[in-house]
Amino acid sequence: MESCIRARFDMTLKAPENSIHDPHVDFNDPHYACILYINDSDGDTVIYNQRNLKDKFTIKKTITPKKNRLLFFNGAYCHTGHSPSKHQNRILLNSNYYIPL
Fold it and tell me: What's the chain's average pLDDT?
């Protein structure tokens, strides 16, 4: 696929409850973000309403990892994930795609 910027597997290990990672955007250029969850787990993904990392965050959507669930969203939105606290790991495939101009 010509528009793919990056594809990577990610595994997050079990941690104390409510271990949330820092909000981020994957790239500064216009792009779509895609997450394919490989296993059922806790450790939700959070997409915020904000596109600027300096803003105060409000939650747009919270997604629970379910095996074979595909999440596709505008990568300009700040987002993050939690480490699982009930499952041993959270495994996903994260990929990013340029938005055609």
Answer: 95
